[in-house]
Specification:
Elements: H1 9-22, H2 28-50, H3 54-61, H4 69-76, E1 78-82, E2 95-102, E3 105-112, H5 118-123, H6 131-147, E4 151-157, H7 164-168, H8 171-183, E5 189-198, H9 199-203, E6 210-214, E7 218-220, H10 224-232, H11 238-245, H12 249-255, E8 260-262, H13 273-292, H14 296-308
Helix pairs in contact: 1-2, 3-11, 4-13, 6-8, 10-11
């Protein structure tokens, strides 16, 4: 794998040795050596991925071979009809979505979309939406509410695009409107952080009744590089920042920011797309089953209370207030 991360190199060395031996496994001695190396590889893989740092998880979340939203669309849904445009300005390729079926049930799917090669990355703006992308997402959510379909969103973005054109067209207003509208949407919303969950750009389609995270995804108010640049004036301190920010799935589950962690295949989703989609399918099935049985009022109330409970704060009285 040319895109192997540094900490994966010992695993790849063993895999290459096994592959070389398999070319001549006719000899009994060779078969024994292969079995020994495969057992050693399994132990090393388990040990490596059980002790990943926050920065290593960040690298996995950004892996160039990691499945993107449209990949999950193909692996999880049937009869997908992609819809385009916000009916105001244009069609933002960094947000994709449409109507689909999940195991026979009609749903509306929405997600950030990054690119693979240079041309597609530029076309998709590296997964950073403009305001018209968020307005397209909101249009799809309103369709879901109108026809009584659950909404499933896939989060994978460094953040909303901060360019001048996006600001001129109302980037902050588009994100704020999505948050307000999602808070009151009278249909189930199930959100999944599949890669990077960056700031308001992620939250603008992530205000779900249930928020799930893939095992090696990250979710944060700012990137580790951005945090390091602000705190220490050095983006190179991103690994230290990542440890302090509590951006990994286990940290966020413990803090109550997400509701469940979806396990990934051994070595991460980038090594086994089908396996990753299968594990995610099980989670979607279970959480959708629970949500669709709730009334509209319970969905709205539960979503509101879920996000109101996040964080810790105190109310202080003003000096001189009262009688």
């Amino acid at each position: 794998m040319p895109d192997a991360l540094d900490f994966e190199q010992p695993l790849l060395d063993l895999e290459n040795r096994i592959a070389a031996l398999q070319a001549e496994e006719r000899l009994p001695k060779t078969r024994d050596e292969i079995a020994r190396l495969e057992e050693r590889l399994a132990r090393l893989r388990q040990r490596t991925y059980a002790s990943l740092t926050a920065w290593q998880r960040t690298q996995l979340a950004r892996h160039p071979k990691r499945p993107h939203t449209r990949d999950f669309f193909k692996l999880l849904f049937e009869d997908l009809v992609e819809l385009h445009g916000d009916r105001l300005y244009g069609d933002d390729a960094a947000i994709v979505g449409g109507l689909a079926r999940f195991e026979g049930q009609g749903v509306v799917v929405i997600g950030h979309q990054k690119g693979r090669d240079t041309r597609e990355k530029i076309a998709r703006n590296f997964g950073m939406p403009h305001p018209e992308g968020y307005r397209k997402a909101l249009r799809l959510m309103h369709l879901a509410q109108k026809f009584g379909k659950p909404v499933i969103t896939f989060i994978d973005t460094p953040g909303a695009y901060p360019g001048l054109g996006a600001e001129e067209r109302g980037q902050a207003e588009a994100i704020a409107r999505n948050l307000r509208e999602m808070a009151a949407l009278r249909t189930p919303i199930l959100s999944v952080v599949t890669g990077e969950g960056g700031s308001g750009g992620a939250l603008a389609i992530g205000m779900g009744n249930r928020v799930l995270m893939l095992e090696y995804a990250i979710y944060s108010v700012i990137s580790p590089e951005g945090c390091a640049a602000i705190l220490w004036g050095d983006a190179g301190k991103a690994p230290e920042a990542a440890e302090s920010m509590r951006i990994t799935a286990p940290d966020l589950l413990r803090l109550g920011v997400i509701d469940a962690i979806v396990p990934e295949p051994a070595g991460g989703a980038h090594r086994d797309w089908d396996g990753a989609a299968g594990l995610l399918r099980e989670a979607l099935r279970e959480h959708l089953r629970q949500l669709v049985s709730q009334s509209h009022e319970d969905l709205v109330t539960g979503r509101y209370e879920k996000f109101r409970k996040m964080g810790a704060f105190e109310e202080a009285s003003m000096p001189g207030a009262g009688g």
